[in-house]
């Protein structure tokens, strides 16, 4: 996260673009969920990484928001003190963000002495400039708990017409987004004891926003245009102004917070909306004692702030008003990046309710969470991971590097060839023109903080690369026109480098691995040259030098999901997909965190009961079991080698094929494998092979996969097929017509018996499948060894260099 080797903090540099980046401070009452991470922290990190690659002088500041009612509430729930809660969850937040590889320059906390100092200093300036007033307000008081109830200690029905949400908090309705006062709630109740509170008078301090309106409106009208504010930020801000600014209370009857430095208010603290944004400043002061060079330097520093849409008014109205009221020359926000809510399956992520996938959950899945959308669903993650990362990006890079790494005679021995005539190669020039346009679009999108558009544009370059490889037919050029092949390979390697740079802000671990495989230091990643431009993208064949030796190519992404079911070539993710692991995740993370904990405890109890039951029934066999276990241990166990012979591939005859009754993209086949009874197999081939071509046809069948239920029908094997690199074409692997039904397909030079059933946990099929492909002669091969029957080799109709699965 932070740069542990940092010795000198970065300060603004005259003549350079100095960019100060913040993301909304995550509240410390729970583990951050993907809504928090993607909506604020990850988006800001993407932009910060982009800025650094462009050569801008940028720092990224964030930290945990630790004061306020929510912390006190969590402390009561966990029978702890607020400080203990903050210490606990701050550490968890740091661990989660570290796993996500977030590149903070400083990740601090608002319970620091610096926060108290900066917050109280700003308050005194506001008081001195007469922007504060004292008023008596009516507040809910719980006689049972003997305390005033702060906003988040009260729940009730939202008073907003058309909403009436029954769990609205005293400060804001989570359903409609309306900011509230606790006394406005209908049927309010104390969150702790559930009893109805009563209204009681209490004195508080208010920030007079109406008096600051002219200064604020001038700032908004100027900056919203210059900073390119998003439409949702402008609409939310204008709605506040149209409704009319009101005095806002800045103090609360709490113990946990920044103390109000006035004798008559010594028992009160600052309201969290007032002190939390000041946390950006205080955390920067922890980063450098010269923090004012960042925060009081609007002529030389641009402030970019990232947040969810519910935080907009605090950053476009409240925080600017606070800073403007001091009369000092503050660096005010230039650009605001607002993320819509990230919804989870059928509902909204909620940290307070524990609904959704949380940062620690993401760690447990081992899925690289680097693809996001407004709606998070497990099936969507599966589709994006498999189609965009594995089949598009990963496929392009691996094809290029693997081909280069082949020994001379079939490749280039890992050494980049020279390509002196690349500039006059028509297909390459066409590609370079398209890539140059995409890079310009990428830079324009990223400068405007349109991150999703930037990512989409970068991925389009990968698609162009795949099309370039396919159209050039480089595998044939190698034998027929080596100079042209060298142009294609060198140009493609330039695209690999370019993609690693363009995607580094989004997928830093991916880029680091690509640079490793290119045998280049990751520090060489850059999105500008000495002049600050990207002209090299228009000449990708010049990016990497001839004679450079690359490292060892390896697959960059794994398929999600790996449960062994049936053929999976449905790129739309509708039927035929390998859904078991995705379904496991959906079930695992269903409900709230409390629900999950309850299920986990119930599972432990059931497991313990089962173990006790076994112990009770084993009886006299116990000693015999111990003896057998000891003998097994003494003999030792040897992990079986993953060899192609462990696959039981046989010649089968489709006796009957029909469409799946409950899945439009699936066929159900009855296949004769020489066993007497036919096996039922479900295959995702409807989009690729007409039904009439599936009848009475010999096929190659993988027979020892674990059976799996596919939309209500058990699939007992898998038909092998080859797919083109862009997955628009799929063909069955055909054994010779005279091959014997039921005979085993062999691989000359490999001997051994197949497993009875492949263990999905050992990933035998997944490990071997990556080396199954059709060659340039259309022969189905495993590492150049043909799939062989007694009647000859197995082939495909027209797809060369296709992936077989």
TrEMBL record:
<dbReference type="InterPro" id="IPR001412">
    <property type="entry name" value="aa-tRNA-synth_I_CS"/>
</dbReference>
<dbReference type="InterPro" id="IPR041872">
    <property type="entry name" value="Anticodon_Met"/>
</dbReference>
<dbReference type="GO" id="GO:0000049">
    <property type="term" value="F:tRNA binding"/>
</dbReference>
<feature type="domain" description="TRNA-binding">
    <location>
        <begin position="643"/>
        <end position="746"/>
    </location>
</feature>
<dbReference type="InterPro" id="IPR002547">
    <property type="entry name" value="tRNA-bd_dom"/>
</dbReference>
<keyword id="KW-0547">Nucleotide-binding</keyword>
<keyword id="KW-0436">Ligase</keyword>
<dbReference type="GO" id="GO:0048608">
    <property type="term" value="P:reproductive structure development"/>
</dbReference>
<dbReference type="Pfam" id="PF19303">
    <property type="entry name" value="Anticodon_3"/>
</dbReference>
<dbReference type="InterPro" id="IPR015413">
    <property type="entry name" value="Methionyl/Leucyl_tRNA_Synth"/>
</dbReference>
<dbReference type="InterPro" id="IPR012340">
    <property type="entry name" value="NA-bd_OB-fold"/>
</dbReference>
<dbReference type="GO" id="GO:0006431">
    <property type="term" value="P:methionyl-tRNA aminoacylation"/>
</dbReference>
<dbReference type="Pfam" id="PF01588">
    <property type="entry name" value="tRNA_bind"/>
</dbReference>
<keyword id="KW-0963">Cytoplasm</keyword>
<keyword id="KW-0694">RNA-binding</keyword>
<protein>
    <recommendedName>
        <fullName>methionine--tRNA ligase</fullName>
        <ecNumber>6.1.1.10</ecNumber>
    </recommendedName>
</protein>
<dbReference type="InterPro" id="IPR023458">
    <property type="entry name" value="Met-tRNA_ligase_1"/>
</dbReference>
<dbReference type="GO" id="GO:0005524">
    <property type="term" value="F:ATP binding"/>
</dbReference>
<dbReference type="GO" id="GO:0004825">
    <property type="term" value="F:methionine-tRNA ligase activity"/>
</dbReference>
<dbReference type="InterPro" id="IPR014758">
    <property type="entry name" value="Met-tRNA_synth"/>
</dbReference>
<dbReference type="InterPro" id="IPR014729">
    <property type="entry name" value="Rossmann-like_a/b/a_fold"/>
</dbReference>
<comment type="similarity">
    <text>Belongs to the class-I aminoacyl-tRNA synthetase family.</text>
</comment>
<dbReference type="Pfam" id="PF09334">
    <property type="entry name" value="tRNA-synt_1g"/>
</dbReference>
<dbReference type="GO" id="GO:0005829">
    <property type="term" value="C:cytosol"/>
</dbReference>
<dbReference type="GO" id="GO:0017101">
    <property type="term" value="C:aminoacyl-tRNA synthetase multienzyme complex"/>
</dbReference>
<keyword id="KW-0067">ATP-binding</keyword>
<dbReference type="GO" id="GO:0009791">
    <property type="term" value="P:post-embryonic development"/>
</dbReference>
<dbReference type="InterPro" id="IPR009080">
    <property type="entry name" value="tRNAsynth_Ia_anticodon-bd"/>
</dbReference>
<keyword id="KW-0820">tRNA-binding</keyword>
<keyword id="KW-0648">Protein biosynthesis</keyword>
<dbReference type="InterPro" id="IPR029038">
    <property type="entry name" value="MetRS_Zn"/>
</dbReference>
<keyword id="KW-0030">Aminoacyl-tRNA synthetase</keyword>
<dbReference type="InterPro" id="IPR033911">
    <property type="entry name" value="MetRS_core"/>
</dbReference>
């Amino acid at each position: 996260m932070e740069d542990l080797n940092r010795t000198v903090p970065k300060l603004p540099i005259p003549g350079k673009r100095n960019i100060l980046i913040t993301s909304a401070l995550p509240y410390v009452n729970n583990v951050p969920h993907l809504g928090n991470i993607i909506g604020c922290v990850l988006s800001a990190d993407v932009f910060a990484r982009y800025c650094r690659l462009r050569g801008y002088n940028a720092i990224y500041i964030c930290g945990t928001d630790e004061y306020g009612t929510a912390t006190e509430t969590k402390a009561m729930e966990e029978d702890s003190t607020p400080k203990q809660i903050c210490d606990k969850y701050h550490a968890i937040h740091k661990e989660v963000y570290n796993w996500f590889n977030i590149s903070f320059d400083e990740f601090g906390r608002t319970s620091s002495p610096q926060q108290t100092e900066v917050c109280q200093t700003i308050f005194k300036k506001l008081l001195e400039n007469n922007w504060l007033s004292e008023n008596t307000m009516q507040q809910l008081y719980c006689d049972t708990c003997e305390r005033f109830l702060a906003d988040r200690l009260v729940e009730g029905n939202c008073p907003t017409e058309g909403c009436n949400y029954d769990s609205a908090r005293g400060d804001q309705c989570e359903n409609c987004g309306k900011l509230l006062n606790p006394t406005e709630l209908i049927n309010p109740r104390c969150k702790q004891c559930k009893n109805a509170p009563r209204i009681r008078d209490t004195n508080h301090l208010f920030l007079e926003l109406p008096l600051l309106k002219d200064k604020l409106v001038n700032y908004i009208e100027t900056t919203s245009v210059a900073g390119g504010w998003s439409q949702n930020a402008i609409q939310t801000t204008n709605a506040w102004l149209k409704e009319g600014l009101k005095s806002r209370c800045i103090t609360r009857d709490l113990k946990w917070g920044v103390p109000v430095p006035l004798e008559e208010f010594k028992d009160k603290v600052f309201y969290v909306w007032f002190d939390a944004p000041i946390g950006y400043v205080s955390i920067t002061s922890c980063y450098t004692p010269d923090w004012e060079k960042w925060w009081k330097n609007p002529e030389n520093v641009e402030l970019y702030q990232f947040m969810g849409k519910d935080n907009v008014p605090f950053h476009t109205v409240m925080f600017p008003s606070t800073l403007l009221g001091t009369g000092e020359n503050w660096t005010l926000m230039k650009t605001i990046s607002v993320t819509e809510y990230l919804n989870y399956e059928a509902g909204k992520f909620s940290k307070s309710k524990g609904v959704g996938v949380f940062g620690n959950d993401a760690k447990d899945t081992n899925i690289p969470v680097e693809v996001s959308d407004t709606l998070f669903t497990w099936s969507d993650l599966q589709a994006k991971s498999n189609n965009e990362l594995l089949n598009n990006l990963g496929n392009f890079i691996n094809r290029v590097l693997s081909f280069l790494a082949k020994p001379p005679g079939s490749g280039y021995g890992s050494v980049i060839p020279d390509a002196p005539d690349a500039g006059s190669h028509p297909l390459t020039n066409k590609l370079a023109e398209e890539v140059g346009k995409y890079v310009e679009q990428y830079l324009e999108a990223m400068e405007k903080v349109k991150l999703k558009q930037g990512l989409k544009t970068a991925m389009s370059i990968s698609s162009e690369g795949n099309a370039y490889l396919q159209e050039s037919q480089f595998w044939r050029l190698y034998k027929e026109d080596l100079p042209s092949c060298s142009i294609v390979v060198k140009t493609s390697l330039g695209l690999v480098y370019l993609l690693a740079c363009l995607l580094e802000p989004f997928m830093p671990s991916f880029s680091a691995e690509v640079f490793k495989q290119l045998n280049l230091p990751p520090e060489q990643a850059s999105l500008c040259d000495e002049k600050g431009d990207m002209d090299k993208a228009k000449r990708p064949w010049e990016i990497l030098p001839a004679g450079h030796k690359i490292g060892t190519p390896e697959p960059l992404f794994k398929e999600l999901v790996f449960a062994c079911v049936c053929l999976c070539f449905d790129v739309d993710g509708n039927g035929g997909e390998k859904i078991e692991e995705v379904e496991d995740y959906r079930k695992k993370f269903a409900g709230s965190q409390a629900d999950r904990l309850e299920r986990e405890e119930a599972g432990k109890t059931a497991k313990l009961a089962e173990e006790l039951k076994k112990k009770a029934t084993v009886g006299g066999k116990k000693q015999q079991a111990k003896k057998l276990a000891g003998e097994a241990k003494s003999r030792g166990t040897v992990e079986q080698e993953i060899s192609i012979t462990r696959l039981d591939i046989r010649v089968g005859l489709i006796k009957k094929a029909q469409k799946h009754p409950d899945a439009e993209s699936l066929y159900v086949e009855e296949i004769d494998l020489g066993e007497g009874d036919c096996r039922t197999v479900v295959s995702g081939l409807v989009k690729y092979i007409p039904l009439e071509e599936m009848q009475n046809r010999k096929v190659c069948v993988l027979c020892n996969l674990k059976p799996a239920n596919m939309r209500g029908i058990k699939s007992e094997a898998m038909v092998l097929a080859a797919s083109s690199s862009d997955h628009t074409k799929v063909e069955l692997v055909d054994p010779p017509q005279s091959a014997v039904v039921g005979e085993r397909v062999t691989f000359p030079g490999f001997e051994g018996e197949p497993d009875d059933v492949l263990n999905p946990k050992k990933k035998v099929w997944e490990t071997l499948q990556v080396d199954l492909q059709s060659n340039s002669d259309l022969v189905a091969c495993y590492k150049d060894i043909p799939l062989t029957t007694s009647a000859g080799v197995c082939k495909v109709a027209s797809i060369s260099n296709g992936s077989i699965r």
